From TrEMBL:
Pfam families: LTP_2. This is Bifunctional inhibitor/plant lipid transfer protein/seed storage helical domain-containing protein. One of its GO terms (molecular function) is lipid binding. InterPro entries: Bifun_inhib/LTP/seed_sf, Bifunc_inhib/LTP/seed_store, nsLTP2. The keyword Magnesium does not apply. Keywords: Lipid-binding, Signal, Transport.
Amino acid sequence: MGLKPKACSVICSLLLVLLTVSLQSSSAGTCKFESLTPCLPAYQGGKPTSSCCAALKSQLSCFCSFASNPLYKSYIYSSSGHKVVAACGLKYPSC
């Protein structure tokens, strides 16, 4: 079973963003987008794991900061992002 081109594109884009973030030497306090990596399978349509939900909970206060960054904005405001947050029983922040 191969990945559909759109799914592959989304995966590659997210991995590129995560790689870019991990290569940056500075970080904004405790806000680390790369800590959301455990949520990648859920973002692609799977069920969020407990580690994903824990990561979301720890970074939820950073979502508005992430949303103001062009690298992350599309992921933060995506329908997949909203679904994962809801599946973890968290309330999506208003920015």
